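We keep the chain:
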Amino acid sequence: MARQERAVRTRRAVIEAAAAVFAERGYTAATIAEILDRAGVTKGALYFHFDSKEALARGVIEAQITSDYWVPRELKLQEWVDICMTLAYRIPKEVILLAGIRLSADLQGRALFGSAWPAWMEVVGKRIAEAKEQGEVLPHIDPQETAEFFVGAWLGMQALSEAYANWTDLSERISMLYNYILPAIATPAALIKLDIAPDRGFRVVQEVERAQALASED
């Protein structure tokens, strides 16, 4: 068990170090030597988990798709909103998310290690499909098409936020995005119940962290 825990910690240290280097320097300029130095592990330990820089990039991309802050909701549209507003809140603060963005936008690198976009489209499409089954979404809406449209629009908002505000206004921009998209796809009865305020992501993170703190006290 102790060996397994060490392996998990080592893998996480390598992922975080690689994310920091990729976020700062991009995939092409990043080196295994710099990642090793940041992680504080041996070359053997790194290659035990990742056999190449390409595998490291793929690991960083995969690490950003976690359910740590996903909270089940009665309204599946609210669950979708919460997942994405929480992501918008976390992006400026978490290097793995920032690195995933830079790697996914790397035109040459995507041919080697892919991007996070298909996984996020799947996450969004699933929530919209579940919402449609529950009568929260208008009958003519195609969940997968809507997911692809949303992720494309998200990427545009993300690029604007980075360019004009260094990510500090991303929550406001994603709130605005929902303000335009949801009236086009949600039933009036569902729409009126949704919370898409810019601080929604912050409040969900606080909710999850309070629950985690209470659980650790038990």
In short: The chain has twelve helices and no strands. Residues 205 and 211 are 10 Å apart (CA to CA). The two ends are 23 Å apart (CA to CA).
